[in-house]
């Protein structure tokens, strides 16, 4: 137990009203996050609340990268929120809404600390958070939403009846056949809502925009964005003051990284997915049908050269372990794959130990998880091929075609994938390949299901196998074994 | 191109440019305007010294990221370089001349006047008098309508008051808006403002270019006002002077904009007999056809289409890219246009219709006036030499503008 509150308080100039928010209780589901959490949290809560929120934000980001429509984005976000960060309205029974809201608030403020550090991160964080806020605002209970709006000051001026009469003919345009007397208008400086001005959705006069009630949400989104931006800047100036804490900084660094590759997930327990585990003989056919490009590349070069360098063995070995290859099968698999390479003695001496080690049977006896996408991105050897071949698109193209043309990838799909790679959205490119090669059961934009993106090679493979089991994916006609 | 007779001087020669910059160019007023106030304290003086100037030299080399502590240093350097013209950029977060030594993250465009650029070439598909770089008194009518519409819209709807209209020297006009709020707009806000004011996109392409209503809806109030303003000059400019529908090509363009195919073919039949009948006759015939439509709905559709035609033919055609980003450069007022030799002089929007591009002083004319006014000695400072030339009213107008930008600023400061 330690006091993260101490750090978070730095964002506030005064702490006069600590007592009123001491326990972090909030009366509304929506939150403009103008109050930081001022209570003790555990390091674990500190990290998990942020990680769970990050999963949602990362999905929102990849929605944008994949040009999902607003409705699709909304749906994906709602699903993800339900999974990781449920947030119920006051009317919800039997649910500790305060605990949910605390987690929401804490996660937001931790991520502020992680993302205030560069302009790029700030910009992306603001965009994703604003989208999340929009989704929640749109899905909020209308009574609670009204109460929430009344509780805040948004710097708008209600347009008086006299003014309404003055601009009657102009204002009428924006409410169609509605009755002007009953329709509320709000007046704000036009600079606060440039998007509405751009689309001519407001009446402009003397630098003020007259916003019809149904566009009111835009003012709130703009206010949310503006406040968050200012707060992040303030935080970035304050953050050097917390740099002495060595417990928090690694967590924050890690979180900032996570935005780049989606959230790192430790993919475990896939044995249930694949049934009784797999045998050495099955690996080759599984590779051709279900492996992501990184593992396909390793598998192919292992088959071709009867050898893999250290990191290749490490990444591929752990991947196969998590996929469900038992220790005995693993040794059999590697021995077979190295045939023609080292003799049996040399294999036992040099490689057997490493394999057993990676299963937690030697040395430290640590059951290592398989590497996730984030780790593969930063690997120098045997890492993410989308990233490593970014600078040589021809090689990436031929690798993609040779690996996946049997599962339906055509030359016409390549430009889209390469465009994502060029944008450095490697996980988006990978997810798109998954969608294309599983087009019989997965629609564009669905990703691995519920719109999730690829964040782990095992997640990719397990989902692929699962789809086949569900019988949605007809069997390949030819097995190449 | 018609050059006036007193232009036997090459407006791009070093000698001409040097005399012009030394004796005539209003550096002092330029400084006053861009510095938005008198001398400032150290902390406040991040305006003029942080402003980018870009020079086009006589050999067409382009020098960017110049900046100066004040007008004196600037004048010195300009006289040394004698550029054929120069452009004004934004105020950066560091002095532009230090660009190479500051970290890129610390060198960002921060503020600048909101600028608009209207160029006659965007009107090529509809003007009948000239094309490309040419401009005559008659095509100026388009610019005049554009200035009237835009000036009113910006003052009335956006509430800005410090507008400076500047003749671009040949076939266009620039607008600088210096109000504090405008000066500090972000790129997003600038983009919103331009899009709001833009009706005609890709004006050079043929076909219907106006798409501002959603379904059957009325025009938004802002464009309704613009339509009204255009209506006043439409008759004179489009129907009489330009006679836009006076040829077969012209009226076919008009017919292609009509949504009612039957009505269009009736008119085509009528007009093909005498394709050269004047535009206003054709316009009236079209109006009569619309009036005779029995279906109320069809009549409304045609009325809307006619409003759209008004906009397509006379609404200001903006070069949007110039206005959207703070880091865009725009030619400074009072530069010499290298092809015409004319000075880029400010124009009073109230009297835009009286403005005649052909009467704008050329550099040759000005130098002749200087010579006529006596002492053509090349040494020493030439304070206020411009008062002896026909540049005088323009510089006075500019000075007044610079003062207005300044006064507001001081008042603002006092209120704190």
UniProtKB/TrEMBL annotation, chain A:
GO terms for biological process: DNA replication initiation; DNA replication, synthesis of primer. One of its GO terms (cellular component) is alpha DNA polymerase:primase complex. InterPro entries: DNA_primase_C, DNA_primase_lsu_euk, DNA_primase_lsu_euk/arc. The keyword Membrane does not apply. Binds 1 [4Fe-4S] cluster. [4Fe-4S] cluster binds at residues 294, 373, 384, 430. Its cofactor is [4Fe-4S] cluster. One of its GO terms (molecular function) is metal ion binding. Residues 285-460 form the DNA primase large subunit C-terminal domain. The keyword Iron-sulfur applies. Keywords: 4Fe-4S, DNA replication, DNA-binding, Iron, Iron-sulfur, Metal-binding, Primosome. Belongs to the eukaryotic-type primase large subunit family. DNA primase is the polymerase that synthesizes small RNA primers for the Okazaki fragments made during discontinuous DNA replication. This is DNA primase large subunit.
TrEMBL record, chain B:
It comes from Lentinula raphanica. GO terms for cellular component: alpha DNA polymerase:primase complex. Belongs to the eukaryotic-type primase small subunit family. Keywords: DNA replication, DNA-directed RNA polymerase, Metal-binding, Nucleotidyltransferase, Primosome, Transcription, Transferase, Zinc. It is an enzyme of class 2 (transferase). GO terms for molecular function: DNA-directed RNA polymerase activity; metal ion binding. GO terms for biological process: DNA replication, synthesis of primer. This is DNA primase. Its EC number is 2.7.7.-. InterPro entries: DNA_primase_S, DNA_primase_ssu_euk/arc. The lineage of its organism: Eukaryota, Fungi, Dikarya, Basidiomycota, Agaricomycotina. SUPFAM superfamilies: Prim-pol domain.
């Amino acid at each position: 137990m330690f006091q993260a509150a101490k750090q978070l308080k730095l964002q506030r100039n005064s702490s006069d009203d600590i007592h009123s928010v001491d326990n972090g209780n909030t009366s509304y589901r929506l939150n403009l996050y103008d109050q930081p959490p001022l209570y003790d949290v555990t390091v674990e809560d500190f990290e998990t609340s942020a990680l769970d929120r990050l999963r949602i934000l990362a999905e929102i980001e990849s929605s944008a990268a994949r040009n999902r429509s607003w409705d699709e984005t909304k749906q994906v976000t709602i699903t993800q929120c339900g999974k990781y960060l449920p947030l119920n309205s006051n009317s919800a029974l039997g649910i500790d809404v305060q605990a949910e809201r605390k987690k929401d608030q804490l996660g937001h403020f931790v991520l502020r600390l992680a993302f205030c550090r560069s302009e790029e991160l700030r910009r992306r964080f603001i965009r994703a958070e604003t989208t999340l806020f929009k989704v929640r605002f749109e899905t909020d209970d209308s009574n609670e939403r009204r109460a929430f709006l009344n509780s805040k000051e948004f710097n708008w001026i209600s347009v008086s009846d006299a003014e309404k009469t003055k601009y009657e003919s102009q204002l009428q345009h924006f409410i169609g056949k509605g009755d002007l007397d009953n329709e509320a208008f709000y007046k704000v400086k036009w600079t606060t809502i440039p998007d509405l001005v751009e689309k001519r959705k407001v009446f402009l006069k003397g630098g003020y925009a007259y916003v019809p009630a149904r566009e009111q949400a835009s003012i709130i989104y703009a206010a949310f964005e503006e406040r968050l931006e200012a707060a992040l800047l303030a935080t970035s100036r304050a953050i050097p003051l917390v740099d002495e804490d060595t417990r928090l900084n690694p967590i924050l660094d890690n979180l900032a990284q996570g935005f780049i590759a989606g959230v790192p997930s430790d993919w475990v327990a896939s044995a249930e997915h694949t049934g009784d585990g797999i045998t050495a003989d099955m690996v080759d056919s599984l590779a051709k049908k279900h492996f992501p490009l990184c593992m396909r590349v390793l598998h192919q070069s292992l088959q071709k050269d009867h050898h893999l360098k250290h990191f290749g063995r490490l990444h591929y070995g752990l991947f196969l372990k998590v996929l469900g290859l038992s220790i005995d099968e693993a040794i059999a698999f590697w021995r077979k794959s190295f045939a023609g390479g080292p003799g049996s003695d040399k294999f036992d001496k040099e490689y057997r130990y490493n394999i057993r080690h990676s299963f937690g049977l030697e040395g430290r006896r640590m059951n290592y998880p398989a590497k996730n996408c984030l780790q593969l991105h930063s690997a120098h050897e045997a890492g993410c091929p989308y990233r490593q071949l970014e600078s040589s698109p021809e090689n990436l193209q031929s690798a993609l075609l040779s690996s996946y043309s049997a599962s339906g990838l055509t030359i016409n799909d390549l430009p889209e994938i390469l465009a994502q790679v060029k944008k450095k959205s490697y996980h988006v490119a990978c997810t798109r390949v998954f969608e294309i090669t599983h087009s019989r059961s997965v629609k564009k934009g669905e990703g691995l299901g519920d719109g999730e993106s690829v964040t782990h090679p095992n997640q990719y493979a397990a989902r692929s196998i699962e789809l086949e089991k569900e019988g949605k994916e007809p069997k390949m006609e030819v097995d190449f074994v | 191109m018609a050059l006036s007779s007193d232009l036997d001087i090459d407006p791009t020669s070093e000698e001409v440019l040097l005399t012009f910059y030394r004796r005539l160019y209003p550096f002092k007023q330029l400084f006053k305007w861009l510095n938005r106030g008198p001398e400032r304290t150290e902390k406040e003086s991040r305006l003029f010294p942080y402003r980018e100037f870009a020079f086009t030299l006589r050999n067409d080399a382009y020098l960017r990221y110049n900046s100066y502590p004040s007008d004196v240093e600037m004048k010195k350097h300009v006289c040394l370089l004698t550029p054929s013209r120069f452009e004004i950029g934004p105020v950066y977060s560091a002095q532009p001349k230090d660009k190479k030594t500051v970290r890129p993250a610390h060198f960002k465009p921060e503020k600048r006047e909101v600028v608009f650029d209207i160029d006659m070439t965007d009107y090529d598909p509809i003007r009948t008098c000239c094309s490309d770089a040419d401009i005559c008194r008659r095509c100026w009518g388009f610019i005049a309508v554009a200035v009237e519409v835009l000036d009113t819209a910006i003052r009335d709807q956006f509430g800005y008051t410090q507008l400076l209209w500047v003749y671009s020297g040949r076939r266009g006009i620039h607008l600088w808006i210096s109000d504090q709020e405008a000066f500090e707009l972000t790129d997003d806000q600038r983009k919103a403002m331009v899009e709001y004011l833009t009706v005609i996109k890709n004006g050079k392409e043929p076909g219907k270019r106006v798409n501002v209503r959603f379904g059957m809806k009325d025009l938004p109030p802002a464009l309704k006002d613009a339509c009204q303003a255009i209506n006043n000059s439409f008759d004179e400019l489009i129907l009489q002077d330009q006679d836009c529908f006076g040829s077969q090509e012209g009226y076919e363009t008009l017919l292609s904009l009509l949504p009612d195919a039957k009505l269009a073919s009736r008119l085509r039949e009528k007009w093909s007999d005498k394709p050269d009948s004047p535009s206003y006759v054709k316009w009236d015939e079209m109006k009569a056809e619309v009036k005779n439509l029995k279906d109320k709905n069809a009549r409304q559709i045609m009325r809307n289409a006619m409003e759209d035609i008004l906009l397509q033919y006379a609404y200001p055609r903006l070069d949007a890219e110039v206005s959207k980003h703070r880091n865009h450069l725009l030619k400074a007022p009072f530069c010499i246009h290298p092809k015409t030799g004319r000075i880029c002089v400010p124009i009073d929007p109230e009297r835009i219709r009286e403005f005649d591009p052909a009467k704008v002083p050329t550099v040759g004319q000005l130098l002749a006036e200087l010579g006529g006014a006596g002492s053509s000695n090349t040494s020493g400072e030439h304070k206020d030499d411009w008062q002896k030339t026909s540049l005088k009213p323009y510089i006075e107008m500019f000075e007044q503008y610079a003062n207005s930008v300044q006064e507001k600023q001081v008042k603002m400061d006092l209120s704190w």
